[in-house]
Write a structure and sequence with these properties.
Elements (H helix, E strand, L loop, with lengths): L4 H23 L4 E3 L5 E5 L7 H10 L5 E3 L2 E5 L6 H15 L10
Antiparallel strand pairs: 1-2, 2-4, 3-4
Amino acid sequence: QKLGVEGHLLRDIHVQQRAFAQAVAAAVKSVRVVEPRTNIVLLDLAESGIDGKEFAARLEERGVLAHLVPGHGRLTFHLGISREDAMEAARAVIETAEGGAHGTGGV
């Protein structure tokens, strides 16, 4: 079945958000990635001990916008987010969850 332009764009967005989700899930066991079903990735912060507001503020300092919903950080992937952007966002989440910037290793 042929995909229209919108279908291709959505597929590209979902590829980037899945790459992000897989990288975070593999690197940070205290932050559970809720299985993405749309272009939204939810990060369950309950076991991390991380304050959600501080988590979001530290990500924003690194250029990653995360919104807070009860018990979760929410990141939304949009058109124009590249694989490089997704991996940079994953690094920011991983390093923030680990308590600070420890380099870019692993992602």
